[in-house]
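Recap for those who missed Tuesday's class. We walked through two folding examples back to back. For each one, the amino acid string is listed first and its predicted structure tokens come directly after. Nothing is annotated here on purpose, so try labeling regions yourself before you check the end of the notes.
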Amino acid sequence: MSRQSKMEGGFAYRNTGTIKNSYAAVKIGTSVQIGRNKSGNAGFVYDNSGELDHCFSRSIMRKWKKEKDGLIAVNKGRFHWCFFVVSREKKLKKFRDREHGFAKKDVVPAFLEDTYQWDFTIFERDPASKMEFLRENWHCAPNGLEQSAVKKTLEIGNCRQLLDWIERVNRGEPEAAQGNVLLTDNLDFYGKEIPSIGCDKQHPFLGTFDGGGHRIAGVVLNGKGAAEIGFFGVLEGTVRNLTVDCIVKGKDCPLAAAFCAVNEGEIHCCEAVCAIHAKRYVGLFVGENNGLIERCCVSGKSYG
């Protein structure tokens, strides 16, 4: 395998943990062929040795010259009731894992409920038959343990407060890196470059970040000189109820993702909207997942 080969998953590059009730709706760039049996890209996860449960992809692979992987390129783990969607049935013959794919017209409530044990009440169909999660049903409430926690919650309501807090996390200050945060408003950085939260494995984020259902937009993440880049770099805590809209400049970074580069913790009810420019290991929502991700989605484009 060439050292410079790009390997990419529409949702995650590598999964050794658990991803459930999540989906990817992205456009993936030019593919390369690696060896005889696996391609450079996959619609949901490139390399899975963990568990996938009730996940799907409707990712579009652009300029693909070889056989495609609609769901997983390399699987050493388990997946349950997962599938991918293409626009027309005749396109399925181009996919190596075509047995897990369906034409859009066939993805209807009765079929999914009977065959894949999906609860279709979390979906809707627009006139063009585009399938989406109903995000208003996603809100993730704190569990009893967190509600009874003694830790004081830091409320963040503007960009300056967020940047100050990120700087403290990345210095390893325990109060910031291990604390509880609540986002109280939508934020827009208007194209400003900001550092990852938990900039590396020596300075992870270990606390709890609740987005409160808000959106952080206009973010640019620059991975130059970093081992990994994402809005959250290395996460060992919990994130929930947050949407991130960002551009990722990851051409000089080995591992690139929009929402989280390396997840060792938990991510619940979150969304990434992204454009990623990278050429090594890419997952559009998460780079490497070793923890738990549930009720999350990603949309956007990846460029080689």
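Example two. Treat it independently of the first, because the proteins are unrelated.
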Amino acid sequence: MPGDLHCHSCLSDGSMEVEEIVELAARLGHTFLSVTDHDTFDGVARAQAAAEKWNIQIVPGVELSCNDPENGRKVHILCYMPKEPMVLQPVMDGVLHDRYMAGVEMAQKVAKLYPVSSAHIRRYARTSASLYKQHIMRALMDLNYTDKMYGDLYKELFSTKTGSCIVSPKQPDVYKMLNLVKRAKGVAVLAHPSVYRSMDLLEKLACQGLIDGVEIHHPRNRQEDIPKMWEIARQYDLIVTAGSDFHGMHSSIPVHLGEVLSDDETLARIQACSQKKG
């Protein structure tokens, strides 16, 4: 039976509570689920508690933020079933702090352009471990400066290259992060290689044995990259995962939970890989 191995709750930059996502997954007929919030494991225990009611298996997971030191591009690593998650905690705490400070600076810049208060923005960030652009946009939507999360105003304010209010937080080196995942005895999967143009990095990490899998089935992976991903996955015997990257109403494209699903074989491979890590 299928399950979604990549989704986000309001503990990071999603719009739904962890318990709501677990219930939704169960109602959709999923048998397993991983809530992979950005740089925090805070949702794992809540998901496991909710899963008891809905008879669904929770795969502990997190999406780790880092960068490729060769080109400065973002890289996301999905870490599943770490046996020693506290190894990752200091670095995750640092990432969340830097993101929060960047979020505060962005909010201050936006407040010079629009009459939005920090209290209004914090209303949407109150459950999150940090402060995200989506929280700022929700406040601007309340004030009717836009009716879209990712429309023209978002591009004007937060476009990576030209946004008037964009502030990019510092993120750790992907190689350092993967070393920590190894020490934490977690299963490392390179998330959506197409999104941050990481096809070359995928091959490097696979060749060096630094990742256990690759997320090939993802709504924003480019179709022209899929054959190359499969070629690398077969060559290096990588686990091939699937996930919707669901963020509720904060999703960057229209996508629903379970739009892209992993199967039992994938879950079994993740579990077997985890067992081998001691």
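Answers for example two:
The chain has a mean pLDDT of 97.
The radius of gyration is 18 Å.
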